Amino acid sequence: MSTTPTAALFKARATTITKDLRHRAVIRGALQKYGVVRDAKKDRFRDWQGARAAASEIKWQAINHLDAHLAQFAEKLEARGGVVHWARDGAEARQIILGIVRAKNAHAIVKSKVMTGEEIHINEALEEAGFDVVESDLGEYICQLRHEAPYHFVFPAMHLTRGEISALFTEKLGTAPTDNPEELTMIARRVLRDKYIRADIGISGANFAIAETGMISITENEGNARLTCALPKTHIALLGIEKVLPKLSDLALFLPMLGTVGCGQLLTGYNTMYGGPKQPGEADGPEEFHVVLLDNRRTALLASPEQRDALQCIRCGGCLNVCPIYKNVGGHTYGATYQGPIGSVITPHLRGLQEWKHLVFCSSLCGACTEACPVKIDLHHHLLQSRRDAITEKPVWWEKLAFQAVGVVFNNAWLFSLGMKLGRIGQLFHPLIKNTPLDPARAWTRARELPKVAPQTFREWWNQRK
Amino acid sequence: MNARETIFGRIREALSRPAQKPGGHDHASPPPGEARTAADCLPFGGADAAEQLTLFTQNAKELSADFRVVETPEALHAQLAELAQREGWKRVASHAGELTEAACAALSLPVTRTDGDGGYDVGELEACDAGITACEALVAQTGSVLVTSRSCGGRALSVLPPHHVVLARRNQLVPDLTAAFALLETRYAPSYPSMISFISGPSRTGDIERILVLGAHGPKKLTIFCL
What is the three-class DSSP state of B129? Predict the structure, then answer.
């Protein structure tokens, strides 16, 4: 396979981190705890597989009538005083958000978690324009202080120990070191409280957009999104166009499924629906409510005859948590906004197959992701399809040649048996060059033993037997 | 062409071609013909009021919420006063409502009302020791409290003070989320409140080593009285 700089970077990061035993221990510890609580909550469902089938069907219908649902969502929300913006790509979304922020003469911006914001690099754009932006989700806040991308799109700071977080707070906030997670959380609470109260603008994402009522739904644990959507005078929600659900009552299914697979909670702490700015007779809430609907090549994925269902994703992170690749290479290695199996499926569609094709090859195709997915996206099969597409689009001459040669040998019994004989002789000399630049199997032998050719083929054994 | 038209054009173009439905490669699929409604697949919400109450009690406990069933308003006020004294409340925040007004009057502490005519001061609300609200419903299936901006004092009251106290009536208990959404529809459709929130336990985070910490940005304590 030809190597792009993005692939080379992926490989370099993966090589380093798979040897990092500390990293492995942290990730394994975090995901083991998650696995236990997730399974306990799954058992509460009267029919987990039935719930998956129902959720998959609703989402499939939703994206297959995306135009009608989006039109209804926008109409309902506008009728309630919300402003709906449409963004063809990241640049347009950034311009829209910067436009609102400038028009409001804002100074301080508080953000609750919004992965679509990571996708379009909204923080960088706002900071460059001179605005003070602070992340309010604890994990995101930690990542922001470290100037790094989230490690996991549900658990952004999963790769850090309490000691590292304490050291970070001591360095950036001047607080006393502590190894108590509760004290660390309280430090962030104190610092961020003040930010909420002073913020002019709150930026959030959304987990679902309800066509029937023109509402967005936000799932969270900390209450930071609740505050982000309550206190600032202007609320901007940024979401992908695929987030639609037809009916408000569909949430009765989706909220517990998201909580269960996402965090191992039947429902997370706060599941909140927002429909427009403060309504007449209400005590508080923003005066302006803007929703920015982002395409950014989601329609290209919609056009894929084989992989349209990837748009059903509710970003629960369930596939990351069971993925053997994710557990070994870690979230930062991917270099993409969305990590793990779902990221490997959608990133090539969103950002170009040839540059990101290494992600679709980086899978054991074990299918754990497909089994974990609450909306039944055929994840591992899509990785296989994208491998085929990548090679068809841009064949690699030597791979083609090698496979042709294998084809000839495998189709000819005489050549095959000669090959086995040569292999048996060849492997006697292999230790001399093993794991040196001369070794043709070096990519394999660097970290593993080459399987031994059997001393006798089946055919030889059969003939001898007579 | 503006952005909206372009995006709709792209969507219609994409949808004009058929696509493969998912699920064909998942071996955990249930056998065909056994399709059940989504509501039947979800966790059980309790068949009658007594079962729902037991379930809510269990779920609330698991979520670290303090759930108390009280028989009379006097008993509720006495327990609330005891709570106020133990935690040293100086000021509480609340809103108009039969249960909330009676409780605040019985507490005889200064009260910040969020639903007054001229609005309220955020700093003052932040300084309150407890937010006392009504609710729309209690959900047995999940142990959640359903609040809305219209009937529970707005958006911030249930999340800004460090202790959220919910005053509910026994007949507000519903079995599950499906019933809760049906109730919201009957009560409000089509002019829903601008915020509808299912609160499940006190504010929490697991962002540090996946260890549960209560009281992240919202209340550290959630007390639910059921009259």
Answer: coil
Q: What is the pLDDT of residue B39?
A: 86
Higher pLDDT, B28 or A245: A245
Is 70 exceeded by the pLDDT of residue B3?
yes
Confidence (pLDDT) at B25: 64
Question: Could you give the ipTM of this predicted complex?
Answer: 0.96
Mutation pick from B217, B220, B221, B222 vs chain A, by most beta carbons of A within 10 Å, is B217
pLDDT tens digits for range A196-230 = 889 999 999 999 999 999 999 999 999 999 999 99
| Inter-chain CB proximity A283 and B120 less than 8 Å | yes
Burial of A4 (0-12, 13-18, 19+ CB in 10 A): middle
User: Read out DSSP for A115-165?
Assistant: HHHHHHTHHHHHHHTT-EEEE-SHHHHHHHHTT---SSSSSTTTT--HHHH
Q: Does B3 sit within 8 Å of A88, measured CB to CB?
A: yes
CB-based contacts of B58-64 (< 8 A; 24+ apart in sequence): B58/B143, B59/A266, B59/B140, B59/B141, B59/B142, B59/B143, B59/B144, B60/B143, B60/B201, B60/B224, B61/B143, B62/B143, B63/B143, B63/B200, B63/B201, B63/B202, B63/B222, B64/B201, B64/B202, B64/B204, B64/B214, B64/B222
Query: Between chains, do A182 and B213 touch, taking CB under 8 Å as contact?
Result: yes
Q: Å from B85 to nearest chain A CA? A: 24
Whether A60 sits inside 8 A of B160 (CB atoms) is no
pTM: 0.94
- On whether any CB of chain A is under 8 Å from the CB of B23, the answer is yes
Cβ contact, residue pair A222, B203, below 8 Å = yes
Q: Does position B28 have pLDDT exceeding 90, yes or no? A: no
pLDDT band at residue A274 using 50, 70 and 90 as cut-offs = very high
pLDDT of residue B30: 54
Which member of A270, A278, A295 has the closest CB to residue B197?
Answer: A270
Of A67, A157, A309, the CB nearest to B15: A67
C-alpha distances (whole Å) from A237 to each of A131, A203, B32, B97 are 18, 6, 40, 32
